[in-house]
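Quick log. Single chain, no ligands specified.
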Amino acid sequence: MSPSWALLSLRIGTAVAGPRGQLTAIDKQAVTRAQYLEEGKFRKDQQGDTAHHGGPEKAVHHYAADHYPKWAEELADLPVQNLDEGGFGENLSTLGLTEDDVAIGDIFELGDAVVQVSQPRQPCWKLNDRFNVPDMALRVQNTGRTGWYYRVLQPGWVQPDDLLRRVSRPQPEWTLTRILRILYDDRFEPGELAALAELAELSPRLRDLAAKRLSSMTIEDWTRRLHG
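-> predicted structure:
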């Protein structure tokens, strides 16, 4: 029997002006009716920055609700905001499924749709504004509590009370935790970078990143992504 996880919420957002004037749809709200999942996103879900959010490789964002208590403990002494379910701008939220448990290429049935894990989230500076914590994006990167994205293999309707059912694991050894370790901790392991660059189920963007790092043996500049 395929393992499954209940959705805690299904969320979509509306693009509005953010604190620095850029459009953002990170404040996604829970819905009570079925949503149609298209190739690049939920039909009614908006994206403020379509260059970095949404699209075929980032159609759906999933964040583990398991992480919120850890963040609350670690940020208890700071004037943090929006630290509850939906805070990370996720479309899907579950319990019992984290970066340790999810591998690149994992295929899930979600209502009538079928989705596949494409990459971990690369946190950006908008999280700093969202949570009122100046280095929140860096904290997310350092902890590996990033969340992840799906590509859509089969469009379809998704109900807020649907189960997320894993039906295939083509690359079980390539957990998101392993990939995050290569990207941000053990950053110059040639064998791992070479394998990552050839991992067919990984998004082209991260395959290219691994190939470029392997070729140059230099780390890409994270300043703009993490701090704006």
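The first helix runs from residue 68 to 74.
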